[in-house]
Amino acid sequence: MAKKGNTSLLLGAAFLMATSAIGPGFLTQTTVFTEKLLASFSFVILMSIIIDIGAQLNIWRIIAVSEKRAQDIANDVLPGLGYLLAALIVAGGLAFNVGNIAGAGLGGNVLLGLDIKVGALLSGAVAIGIFLVREAGKAMDHFAQIMGFVMIGLTVYVMFTAQPPVGEALMKTFAPDQIDILAIITLVGGTVGGYITFAGGHRLIDAGLKGKEALPEVTRSSVSAIGIASIMRIFLFLAALGVVAQGFTLDPGNPPASVFRLAAGDIGYKIFGIVMWAAAVTSVVGCAYTSVSFIRTFHPTLEKYHNWIIIGFITASTLVFISVGQPVKILVLVGSLNALILPLALGVMLVAAHRAKIVGDYKHPLWMTIFGIFIVIAMSYMGVYSLVNGIPQLFK
């Protein structure tokens, strides 16, 4: 039930979701597509924000009103479906977390000159430390909020130094020169695909903020989460656009670092190190927490030791990176593949929203159902399109 004094919790859930989205893949995807599409990328951002809000509104509301996590809702819709959804989420989350750990190592290398693998190990230790404190949930909330403000503030500074053509970007938002379906699905996948859209919703369930009475607050928090991630996306896009519009070419091995360095010199490069590290470590935390939240209800032992399982998840991600690595193209690929989970997850939620045994006497708004169905159809189509046409181009 909603209570006074929940502002910190709601903001924490919003920032947890947003900072889970703002990771190394987010930074890489934004700069890669800005260089490719230039000002027309603003249209892609607008489309992704609309889709993100529709998906997030539906999923968070249904989780809150059912008072259950997504995997249990899915099992209520069709026995066994929750296990499939959990398997997809955990597998995708592990792949994403390898990239997050890689980004944290890179941030440490840029900022302090550490070997990337050493930086990755130390960053993994910081993430693990959050889950070793007594009030792990609150520690996670505060960490996400602080790092979120740091990332946005520093990116705003770099954006102003890049002097982007804001007027052109605004015009192309509604009249793009080209429409890139792969870019749209990649951005949606990187913002609300896979585990990400469930991060804040599951956090609110864990904190006891649920039920019909809490819906106004849950709705505000869900939209705020997309707003925070979108603000970061827009500022980063404008920074990259300012650099590219001046005729500079981004380093394909590390596109976002190029943006910060070309826009603000050596200081910009150090700022990139801070932003990359903050983005990566908050994503490590959010990814591990949310992925494990998808399996913790399956057995009492998993519930009892879920914090230690989260620690194991972070440790495994770190060891995989140290052994294998994570190139730029894989970060873009995982974002696209993660978007394929969204139609399944959202489709299940929409069915659940109209099952009385799951939501009781709650009546899901018709416009949200229609909006959600449209997103399921559109993302299914774009997902198949990207698999057939777009993704193979990445590896030519």
From TrEMBL:
Transmembrane spans: 37-60, 81-104, 110-131, 143-161, 181-201, 222-247, 267-295, 307-324, 330-353, 365-388
UniProt keyword annotations, A-Z: Membrane, Transmembrane, Transmembrane helix
Signal peptide: none
Coiled-coil parts of chain: none
A Pfam family annotated for this UniProt entry: Nramp
InterPro entries cross-referenced by the UniProt entry: NRAMP_fam (IPR001046)
Broad class of where this protein is predominantly found: membrane
Topology class, membrane: Multi-pass membrane protein
Intracellular or extracellular location(s): Membrane
Record flagged with keyword Transmembrane helix: yes
Protein name: Mn2+/Fe2+ NRAMP family transporter
Lineage of source species: Bacteria, Bacillati, Bacillota, Bacilli, Bacillales
